[in-house]
Automatic annotation (TrEMBL):
One of its GO terms (molecular function) is O-methyltransferase activity. InterPro entries: FkbM_Methyltransferase, FkbM_mtfrase, SAM-dependent_MTases_sf. This is FkbM family methyltransferase. SUPFAM superfamilies: S-adenosyl-L-methionine-dependent methyltransferases. GO terms for biological process: methylation. PANTHER family: NODULATION PROTEIN, SLL1456 PROTEIN-RELATED. Residues 31-201 form the Methyltransferase FkbM domain. Signal peptide: none annotated. It comes from Tectimicrobiota bacterium.
Length: 363
């Protein structure tokens, strides 16, 4: 699963990368459940980014390291969980559906996905907590976490609690509204864990699945999301509300500096939240951050384009004001056109009488 709102041409981010804004402290993204490789949109950071992947499938991990060696990328054949231990891993007919939670076949058989989630074998896997692994492998900080691990997302988050408090500013997490695995956490559990740590929900891609009783027609041999049906799962984007945190007492243990603020603003732009990025850099500037950069120019780069053309931030705001005024005038004129002239005159006379009556009372 993946978020649907991705900016494929992030002008603000490209400007920061071109100016080597993250050269001293690259953006570090960790992808847990990295089967298939890293998402393409991270490539806009070039050599100012480090990508760290975890994939429990040893063969897939070896393939990824061969395919994407160098360029600040590294994959580890490690199964992350809440802590060090040895746990049962359920291998399903569809490899990407395998995980530490056993599929609930009574629930799954109500949907077309029952064949792919059938357990074909179980194995015992050693697990590690992210914080302890990071400490042992010189992973000093993490900016962004992506988790897609077939229901163990909350377990992994608990094993990464120290990193979440210390440096993480954003997460992309597969979440479940309906439990397809026995004993798995659902969306409200993840939300309740992350909110006290300072993370807020900024975007949510929903995935539906039609029932087996009346399945939606699809040419794919692998059942997937449908246009209709019950909401089953999704991909949630959690970010820190940087504008709020830097104006008050920060929850982030590492604190905020120019680079951290620009990283968050850049991530906001990347996930189609330019309004949040604009607010962040404006608040940061007023609070004494990013003083060595042209804030007006940064704001200009966040303005959405129309037909490949862009205007300045100030011109954009002026255009918005004009549109609102024209819309108000237009709506008022349309309302008048629906009322016959004779009635409009009567209403006018009544309003004048009411005004005069109020004036006499006040006198």
């Amino acid at each position: 699963m993946a978020l649907k709102n991705i900016n494929l041409s992030p002008r603000f981010t490209k400007h920061l990368v071109a100016s080597r804004a993250f050269e001293r402290k690259p953006l570090v993204t960790v992808d847990v459940g990295a089967r298939g490789g890293f998402e393409e949109h991270w490539s806009c950071y070039g050599d100012q980014m480090k990508l760290i992947g975890f994939e429990a499938d040893v063969n897939e991990c070896e393939r990824l390291n061969r395919q994407e060696s160098g360029l600040g990328k590294r994959f580890y054949p490690v199964a992350l969980h809440q802590n060090i231990g040895r746990r049962t891993f359920y291998c399903t007919a569809y490899p990407a559906g395998s995980g530490f939670y056993q599929p609930d076949m009574k629930q799954v058989q109500r949907f077309p996905d029952k064949v792919n989630l059938a357990v074909v074998k179980t194995i015992e896997l050693d697990t590690a907590g992210f914080d302890s692994f990071a400490s042992d492998n010189a992973i000093d900080y993490v900016d962004f976490l992506k988790l897609d691990t077939e229901s163990t997302e909350l377990d992994i988050l608990k094993g990464a609690a120290r990193s979440l408090k210390k440096s993480v500013i954003g997460l992309s997490i597969e979440i479940w509204f309906q439990p397809w695995h026995i004993g798995q956490p659902v969306f409200c559990d993840v939300y309740s864990f992350l909110r006290p740590l300072g993370f807020r929900l900024f975007d949510l891609a929903l995935y539906r699945m039609s029932r087996e009783a009346l399945p939606e027609a699809t040419p794919s041999l692998i059942p997937g999301p449908t246009k209709q049906g019950q909401v089953i799962s999704g991909e949630a984007l959690y970010l820190r509300d940087g504008a709020s945190e830097i104006a008050a007492e920060s929850i982030l243990e590492d604190g905020w500096d120019d680079i951290k603020i620009l990283k968050l603003a850049s991530i906001m732009e990347l996930f189609c939240l330019p309004d949040c990025a604009a607010e962040l850099i404006q608040v940061a500037h007023r609070q004494g951050f990013i003083q060595n950069r042209d804030v007006n120019n940064l704001a200009d780069l966040l303005v959405p384009g129309t037909g490949g053309k862009y205007v300045s931030y100030s011109s954009y705001l002026e255009n918005i004001r004009n549109i609102k005024q024209r819309g108000y005038a237009s709506n008022t004129q349309r309302a008048k056109s629906l009322i016959p002239l004779g009635i409009r005159k009567i209403i006018g006379v009544l309003l004048i009488k009411i005004r005069d009556k109020i004036d006499s009372i006040l006198k």
